[in-house]
Specification:
Layout: E1 6-9, E2 26-30, H1 39-51, E3 54-58, H2 67-76, E4 84-89, H3 91-103, H4 112-116, E5 126-131, E6 143-148, E7 153-158, E8 166-169, H5 179-198, H6 204-226, H7 231-250, H8 255-265, H9 271-286, H10 291-298, H11 310-327, H12 344-352, H13 355-358, H14 367-376
Parallel strand pairs: 1-8, 2-3, 2-4, 4-5, 5-8
Antiparallel strand pairs: 6-7
Helix pairs in contact: 5-6, 5-7, 5-9, 6-7, 8-9, 8-12, 9-11, 9-14, 10-11, 12-14
Length: 378
């Protein structure tokens, strides 16, 4: 898949976007209640309003949006045809912005229902995606994930047409993230990188993105969480997140994400938290099938012991993940989230139903394997 987005990155880089406002008739600005009140966001909106006659602001995108939320948004929009969509926010906002970019154009020939049924869009309006968390990598993926409450799960809509024209990596936009959000979104980025790197559909292009992203993440995640003012590590985490998204675009995640979907879909556990809980047991399960790749990833750690054997490195990497989740003070057990053994059979069936991701697992995985992983987390 060819990612042809133009990337602008660095402190103050939003000022380099203003030339894109020339001759725009209708800009749709999509964000959420947290981001709309940031001074950087307000300044951007003011600049857009100074240069464009019609600006529609949507600032109520919820976490983990459902297909109903997108339908309601489309119904509320007074003017459906926009020629520029700007999405500023975390993964949920950016996923909605990508969907809206194909649904809000004049004479759009596709509906949300058709997208959910598997039809592919053929065009979109110009789009700019500006992430405010360093985790989902949505700005680099052809995916948009929506909750399907009727089925207590999530569904991905996938098309390269949704990839944005421009991506802005603005480190000062991520300094307001609370520590637990920075930690959980960082683990989400780590899951993207290590899962894509070890998926059975991995390939040299995706692997290259994953290795670059992991090196940036291993050197920056904890520093970024512990020091909100460190612009350098904030920017490195944005890049790590972007590379994670690019790896998804060329390969795909597998066991962690498949098993986390029902945790978010039915129990509304934040995506990064669900991934943090599942990271270690899932990586323990696949380790013996990807020893050499785990060894490659281990070598990127700042304190890697390069004299270890590949087998030893693979175990050491899993242990690093275990200690990292603990140091970041993220949940390690499902019981911490009020999920009990009564929920296990539902979780197993729902996870196995995410065949798009289960098919990417680098070894055979049975219903009993999935049950054992969930059970280990009680």
């Amino acid at each position: 898949m060819h990612i042809n987005s133009t990337i602008l990155s660095g402190q103050g880089v939003l000022k380099d976007l203003y030339f894109l406002l020339k001759d725009r008739k209708h800009v749709l600005f999509i964000t959420d209640q947290n981001i709309i009140n940031l001074s950087v966001t307000k300044e951007l909106i003011e600049k857009v309003q100074e240069n464009v006659a019609l600006v529609t602001i949507v600032d109520d995108i919820p976490p983990e949006p459902s297909h109903h939320d997108v339908t309601n948004l489309l119904n509320k929009m007074k003017v459906s045809n926009a020629d520029l969509v700007i999405g500023v926010g975390g993964g949920s906002v950016l996923d909605v912005a990508k969907l809206i970019s194909v649904l809000c154009i004049k004479d759009s020939n596709i509906t949300l229902e058709q997208l959910l049924d598997g039809q592919k869009p053929t065009r979109r309006c110009t789009s700019i995606l500006i992430p405010t968390t360093a985790g989902t990598g949505s700005e680099a993926t052809p995916n948009a994930i929506l909750a399907i409450p009727e089925k207590d799960t999530k569904q991905g809509i996938i098309s390269p047409v949704m990839l944005p024209d421009y991506v802005c990596l603005v480190p000062e936009l991520t300094t307001s993230m609370p520590n637990h959000i920075a930690a959980s979104t960082g683990i989400d980025a780590l899951c993207h990188l290590i899962e894509c790197f070890t998926a059975n559909i991995s390939n040299p292009i995706g692997d290259n993105y994953a290795l670059i992203g992991m090196q940036k993440l291993f050197n920056s995640l904890e520093k970024s969480v512990n020091d909100k003012t460190n612009i350098e590590t904030k920017l490195n985490m944005l890049w790590a997140s972007y590379y994670g998204g690019a790896a998804i675009a060329h390969a795909g995640t597998h066991l962690v994400h498949a098993m986390s979907y029902p945790l978010g879909g039915k129990y509304h556990i934040p995506h990064g938290v669900a991934n943090a809980i599942l990271l270690v047991p899932c990586m323990e399960f696949v380790r013996d099938a990807v020893v050499d790749k785990f060894a490659q990833a281990y070598d990127l750690l700042p304190d890697a012991v390069l004299t270890l054997t590949a087998e030893e490195k693979s175990h050491a990497l899993v242990n690093y993940f275990r200690e990292l989740v603990k140091r970041l003070a993220l949940p390690c057990k499902l019981q911490e989230l009020n999920i009990s053994s009564d929920d296990l059979h539902y979780l197993v069936d729902a996870a196995l139903d995410v065949k798009r991701l289960m098919n990417n697992v680098p070894k055979q995985v049975s219903k009993q394997d999935v049950l054992a992983i969930y059970r280990s987390l009680l």
